[in-house]
Specification:
Layout lengths: L2 H55 L8 H5 L2 E8 L14 E5 L2 E2 L2 E8 L4 E8 L8 H15 L6 E7 L3 E8 L2 H9 L9 H13 L8 E8 L10 H10 L3 E6 L8 H13 L2 E3 L6 H13 L2 E7 L9 E8 L5 E4 L2 E3 L4
Parallel strand pairs: 5-6, 5-8, 8-9, 9-10
Antiparallel strand pairs: 1-11, 1-13, 2-3, 2-12, 4-11, 6-7, 12-14
Helix pairs in contact: 3-4, 3-8, 5-6, 6-7
Length: 339
Amino acid sequence: MGLRDREPWFIGKILDALGMKYTRIISCLAAFSLAVALLPAVGQTTSSAAAYVAASDDPQGSVLTIRKRVDEVNVLFIATDRHGKFVRNLNQDDFNFLDDHKPVQSIVNFRRETDLPIKMGLLIDVSGSVRSRFQFEQDAATGFLQHIIRTGFDQAFIMGFNSHQQLAQDYTDDILRLSSGVHALRDGGGTALYDAIYHACQDKLKQQSDHPVRKAIVLLTDGEDNQSEHTRWQAIEMAQRAEVIIYAISTDDSGLVLRGDKILEQLAAATGGRAFFPFKMKDMTHSFAAIEDELRSQYVVSYRPADFSADGRYRSIEIIALKKDLQVRARQGYYAPRQ
């Protein structure tokens, strides 16, 4: 066959080859065009996200925004009459609420709160100074746990402290395990009270829960500290950041007003708790009963502060009773979140 005879066949092969390459080129161009066409859609998604963030900064936007969540403050507080008895039939109109010395912007919620789950740390001083009454303190603490912890609802942990902290029992609602943790503690050594409070709050109580809880520390100590690395103010700040109420029961039975008593009062007052000074060891049982009663007799108010800024700054809280002879006890302030 001559070249001229093979020409149609040869040209057909060339066209077939070109056709295959052309098809691939068209396919590539189509894919490229589609990618280009999608670019505005990606840009629109980013713009939508930016618009959502911007909307979150808009006071008229949805309440389910980051800003709306960080500027809502929840405060548990106690109201008592002049005899120290709990007053349980009050409403929000019976109080003025100040945040950072200014009236709050709005009250979101106000209610009596008697049934919130409790997350509690029982911190027991096991230093050498408590040796003579240590067994009684253990028994009184066990009796308190039996009354306050509701199985399937509340949880507590046991921490002993001298110069170091010892977690004798982690969070549980099992009274037998909690009792075993209390009685497993052994006394002796120095006292690092502030370190115990700091680490209990930071390591065990600062974590956010997925549902509202009451967070408390019950201290059993004489209030003396001689070995802490953290200061008293650092311990108080960590408790405030963790939104923990501190109740303190003094183990000093001397009948004298000692330096440790003032320290316990300061720790309790700064966090909305209370300090007890049982003169006799048998009175310690009454102190535990008073703490139990108080934890079941609280109010909770949720409010939005005026001129709020997520700057990490400390902001004071004042709850002022409008009725005569009514006393209010609440934590003294909080640290705003930082964004």
